[in-house]
Amino acid sequence: MTRHEVEAFCTETLEALRRIQSPEELEQFRLTYLVQKGRIRQMLDRLRQVPTEEKPAIGRLLNNLRSTVEEEFAALRNRFERQRSHDPTFDPTLPGRLIPRGSLHPVLQTLDRMIDIFVRMGFAVATGPDVEDDHHNFEALNFPPDHPARDMQDTFFLRRTDAHGKPLLLRTHTSPVQIRLMESMQPPIRAIIPGRVYRNEAISARSLAEFHQLEGLCIDERTSFADLKGTMIAFAEQMYGSGIRYRFRPSFFPFTEPSAEMDIECFLCGGKGCRVCKQSGWLEIVGCGMVHPHVLQACKLDPERWQGYAFGFGIERVTMLLTGIDDIRLLYENDIRLLEQF
Ligand code: PHE
Prior knowledge:
Largest sheet: 7 strands, mixed
Number of helices: 12
CATH class of the largest domain: Alpha Beta
Strand content: 15-25%
Number of domains: 2
Bound molecules: phenylalanine
Structural class: alpha+beta
Number of strands: 10
Strand order of the largest sheet: 1-5-6-10-9-8-7
CATH architecture of the largest domain: 2-Layer Sandwich
Order of helices and strands: HHHHHEEHEEHEEHEEEHEHHH
CATH topology of the largest domain: BirA Bifunctional Protein, domain 2
Helix content: 25-40%
């Protein structure tokens, strides 16, 4: 590489740089001359072959070229950028384009929050089928054969029958999964069961034919009503805030004894009474109780050894209370104007 060649290269490079008219040409120049394996780098690499006495002069030429090119390149780039912001068709005050973002349905958001709280308390998550048989939905749960809840009014029966010739049905609650768990595993059991349930009911602002529940089941050797209350209170405080007031009322379910319902103070009116709590100041949030010995026996568990508690929340109910949505049908219509708000 002679001094003459290097001088020619310098002239050629500067001419190329000074011919640039557009950002595209500038980029092309960068790719040809300035990148890692670009022409300037190649020349600097060839410096090694130059005889020692010529090295300082040629080296200086190339280094000068490099700094001149870098300076002029930066200046050009700035100029093009400034030109772009002076482009009359570019209006920096226009609002940006929002990328629409989806979200989970409010019912699923509630369910996720509830599941999180119980999982942190040590509950596993289990599921079961929507199509059930009489045994799991009623029989093993200690519903007497003539119990009104088996009535055609409440249950959607299917034309298909089970092995005993009884019609299959859409589960009316998530409690049949309690039976499936106790039939299929040895205690201790501590599980929650989220899922969809079906009731043959007239659709109104307060009820749908299809909704969601979150069931809970805990079976162990020394489980008491105090454990049940403690679990429900711990849940309610995490879900609704630690200062909330609550009360337990006696209730009835065929599969629990004793049975209770838990109310929390209406957080919309602070207990003074409003439309949502129907002027009572209290909101019912969960049905619960100690698993009935008949249920344990139906699952071949010895009630002398095993006890447990169960509970069941209605998810739409909880969602309505949390969001202030006062017509349950809104949660099923999938009107984007409502869903967008969550
Ligand atoms: N399965 C009951 C219902 O649907 C709720 C419940 C579950 C009550 C578990 C007690 C224990 O109303």
